[in-house]
Amino acid sequence: MKLRAIWEFVAGDSLWGPIALVLAIGAVAALQRTGFPTAAMLAFPLIIGAGLAASVFERAEHASRVS
Amino acid sequence: MNGVLNEWVLFGTAFLASAVEAVEALTIVLAVGVTRSWNVALRGTALALIVLATIVAVFGPLLRTIPLGTLQLVIGIFLVLFGLSWLRKAILRYSGRKALRDENAAYDREARAFDGMSGRNADRLAFATAFNAVLLEGLEVVVIVVTFGAASTSALASATLGALAAIVVVAIAGVLLRRPAARVPENLMKFIVGLMLTSLGTYWAGEGLSLQWWRQDSSIILLIAFYTLLSGTIILRARRTTQALAR
Lengths: 67, 247
What we know:
heterodimer, A: 67 residues, mainly alpha, 3 helices, 85% helix, B: 247 residues, 82% helix, globular
């Protein structure tokens, strides 16, 4: 099985989800180190959620450009 | 991960995920059974189920040898990626950006593949079709069950029971109906599974990162509520965009 096929099996065909997840993990690490655990707890799902929104509207944007 | 709540969440998520995939696999197995041979279709299905059960039996307990913090983070990342992918597809379907899956069309497509074929080659193709369908559709469920099972033995049991219960329900429905389960609200089920996987994944990845969740396990409910609200908002907004483009 090709690596790309495995990746798409896990993460689908949008990069926004994985990008958001990496950013969310980075933000949590930074906020925890600087002493903001509550902000870290709130930022984590918010950034992941932003990735979800971006992945949906990426498709909408693409469709509008095609049409 | 502890608590009766979590066990039910795992059971429910595995049940729904398994039901969705089982409905899709059932469509293909039915097409093979009706148009070619029930013997071949059931043999292909049985072999695929044995392979899937072996994967769960081997990898389920094996994952628990990894240190808990690392495991929670890796599992969490995996579940979030998986969940976002399911959720995105369901949202795109709800907002009219992606066509809803049509089980009747899928059934016709598979059935047509055997038109005019006869003999051993047709049997081999029929076996391979049933085997591949069950294996590929089941693989996603296996990944979910194994990932859940990494948390504890009881979590593995809950997730496995949920998946098995769904397979039994869908199989009984298939035997009774003898046609594709086209009326199953597949997108709603995918939407719920996406929500659950993303919420559980966020919680576990957070645990792996040593996040101090508010009220510990109860945060899962808040995460489900947050992602439901967010997804609803995205659907409404995306629908408006779709309608504007259609004009």
